[in-house]
Specification:
This protein has 309 residues and is an alpha+beta fold. The protein has twelve helices and eleven strands. Strands 3-4-7-5-6 form a five-stranded antiparallel beta sheet, with no helix packed on it.
């Protein structure tokens, strides 16, 4: 066993022994009801950005959002990742928040975070938000829990077909990191450690944008958000990848939107028709119906921005 593996195993064993939780930057875990905390090992190959001979890149899970944005080669090669990361929280939060922490944070549902309520994610068998306070909940129904996953960074990683390196597992597609279990926000057990994310070699000349709709201008969780990647041949869209957040229990890649765009013109009518594909899958709750037109407008805005010189 290498020193890196030994450090990771020691952290995992500490979690198992204490019933605790791993801590990275702590911007999420420190705001929730206290459990024993186990700091991730600082020298365990979890930090930094490494370029590989084939042009792909490895980003350590403990790399902060600020450090990610400070890497000029990375931001130039993956502009959708850069635009998405730059919108996260505030500079103070980005200074300590990590790539892995953003991907694996818990949802923001009032019922989960308020002691005294039982829900699918804390040992209960109901979702009190469905018939209760669900103003910020999902519009794409993926099952019993309706709390949207809050990872903004996941949208860009979905759009780039990135993979997650989890200690002791085979690589996971980013979508598979979240799974379909309503009792948890991601598939990792409490003692499993996300080591890094891997992005495939960059595509030159891509057009990208990130857009979000929020209740206030700064330091606010998005109601709806979208990341888009396009390549164009003249005015024709040759490739497309579109992801959205704030609308479902997991971050969502929207293949139906990409399919509608592929091979078509980069025009307002085409963008609106593609966004219609996304809203067609929405089945909002009574107080989340406002998110449907908001999703449509956010997608059209992002697509327009990506195609604007």
């Amino acid at each position: 066993m290498t020193a890196i593996e030994a450090a990771l195993e020691a952290a995992a064993e500490a979690v198992r022994a204490t019933g605790g939780e791993l801590r990275a930057g702590g911007t999420d875990v420190m705001t929730r009801p206290a459990r024993p905390l186990v700091d991730l090992p600082a020298g365990a190959d979890l930090h930094g950005i490494t370029w590989r001979p084939d042009g792909s890149v490895r980003v350590g899970a403990l790399t902060t959002i600020t450090d990610l944005l400070a890497d000029a080669r990375l931001t130039a090669s993956y502009p959708a990742l850069a635009a998405t990361a730059a919108a996260i929280a505030t500079p103070q939060i980005r200074n300590v928040a990590t790539v892995g922490g953003n991907l694996l944070q818990r949802n923001r549902c009032w019922y989960l975070r308020t002691p005294g309520f039982a829900c699918h994610q804390n040992g209960g068998d109901t979702c009190p938000a469905r018939d209760g306070a669900h103003l910020y909940s999902a519009v794409v129904d993926q099952g019993p829990c309706v709390a949207p996953h809050p990872s903004t960074l996941a949208l860009a990683l979905l759009a780039y077909a990135a993979t997650a390196d989890v200690h002791g597992r085979a690589p996971l597609e980013i979508a598979d990191l979240y799974g379909d279990d309503p009792t948890r926000d991601h598939v990792l057990d409490s003692a499993e450690i996300l080591r890094a994310v891997h992005l495939p070699p960059p595509v030159s000349g891509e057009r990208t944008a990130y857009r979000r709709a929020t209740a206030r201008e700064r330091a606010e969780w998005p109601l709806v958000e979208a990341t888009v990647r396009l390549t164009l041949d003249g005015d024709t869209i040759t490739t497309a990848a579109v992801a959205a957040g704030g609308i479902a229990r997991t971050p969502l890649l929207l293949p139906e939107v990409a399919e509608a765009l592929h091979g078509g013109p980069a025009t307002p009518d085409a963008f609106a028709a593609a966004a219609d594909r996304a809203t067609a899958r929405c089945t909002p709750l009574p107080r989340t119906a406002y998110k449907v037109p908001l999703l449509h407008a956010t997608l059209v805005d992002a697509l327009t921005a990506a195609c604007t010189p």
